[in-house]
Amino acid sequence: MTAQSFLLSLAYGARSTPFAAAVAGLLSMIVSAMSIQLLLRQRQNEVTDSVVLHRIEQNHGWQEIFATGEVRARNAGQSRRRLIRLRSYRIWTGGLALFGIAGFVALLRAVL
User: How much is the pLDDT for 83?
Assistant: First the structure.
C-alpha cells in the first residue's frame, strides 16, 4: 500500500514530468497485478488446505475444527455480523484493482 501511494503521488504530482508519471503509472499497474496474483494464489492454497484438513477430520471421525468461518462462529455460539460476512480477499482484490486502474489512468494522462 505504501509503494502504491508513493507511485501514485509521483504519477499525479504537479512537478512530475510526463515520462516520470508514465513510469510511475506503469509500475503502479504492475505492482497491483503482482499483489492481486499473490493474494489469489495464497487464497487458493488456503482453500486447498482447508479441504484436505476437512477430509482428514472426516476420515478419522474427529470433531470438525477446520470449518468455514461461519461454521466455526456458529459452533462457538457467536453471530457473524454483516460486515464480517464479506470475503476479505474480494475486498482486497477490489482495492488493489483500484490502485491498478489509477495507475493506468496516470499512464494514459502522461502519454496523451
Answer: 61
